[in-house]
Amino acid sequence: MEGHLDNPLKELFSDTHLTSRIKKKLPKLFHIAELESSRAGKVGMEVGSVREKVIIALLIYQYGKENVNTSIPITEAETDVIVKGSPYSIKTITGNGGVKAVWTVDASSAANFINSYAPKCNILLIQINWGYTRGGFSLIPLEVQKKVFKKLGKDKYLKLPKAGTNPRGVEFTREAIDTMLADKDTLKVDIDWKKEVFEYDTYKKWVEYWKED
Q1: With contact defined as beta carbons under 8 Å apart, do 2 and 186 qualify?
Q2: What are phi and psi of 120, to 5 degrees?
Q3: How far is 18 from 12, CA to CA, in rounded Å?
Q4: pLDDT recorded at residue 180
Q5: Most buried of 67, 88, 97, 174 (most Cβ within 10 A)?
Q6: CB neighbour list of residue 38: distance below 8 Å, 6 or more residues apart
Q7: Which has the closest alpha carbon to 9: 122, 176, 168?
């Protein structure tokens, strides 16, 4: 699928060699990310950070380390990586989970984020559905976000955490995500989320490091 906006990452979605590589590699690499982040069969919260590294590695592989800036200040709440001068936020969800606009520590910081919010970077959204084809790897350009934000308004675009709960972040509304994904300028690669059965040793690479002189 090919949109009409000029975006540095557009070729990830239009180059048939690249898209086939993503379709083939992403399920296995995200499966490894889960194995790396699991203890006693349960996947931990850190899996999000490992998945993010998988996507950044794809960007470095395709565009070269010199064009991919991962040195993002901790104060940048949304930007995870900058490619050829353009900022991107990497978001991964499993099943029908909500998509976080930002992680926050309390209701006050969540409210402050919403009050001052305006879209400011492109979004790479990976929807994981193990055992299904539904979902995939999408690029939601900044221009699409701005258009939908203006159309829906802040109250229909962002979901404020319920009072008295541990918010752990502000989410986009389901309507906002669905509208952005349906936009003609949003790019997508459909992924067949099959888990390949293979042997994987979580500690092998660390043991190899210990063996080095």
Answers
A1: no
A2: -140, 0
A3: 6
A4: 97
A5: 88
A6: 44
A7: 122
pLDDT in tens, 158-188: 987 776 666 578 899 999 999 999 999 999 9
Rounded Cα distance between 9 and 128, Å, is 20
Tell me which amino acid residue 109 is: S
Q: Do the Cβ atoms of 103 and 62 come closer than 8 Å?
A: no
pLDDT of residue 3: 47
Domains of the chain in sequence order: 11-195 (3.40.600.30)
- What is the SS3 assignment for 21-86? HHHHHHHHHHHHHHHHCEECCEECCCHHHHHHHHHHHHHHHHHCHHHEECCCCCCCCCCCEEECCE
pLDDT of 98 reads 87
Residues of the chain with pLDDT under 70: 1-5, 105, 163-167
3-state class (DSSP) for residue 181: helix
The phi and psi torsions of 39 (rounded to 5 degrees) equal -140, 125
pLDDT of the residue at 166: 60
Distance linking the first and last C-alpha atoms of the chain: 49
Helix (H, G, I), strand (E, B) or coil at 204: helix
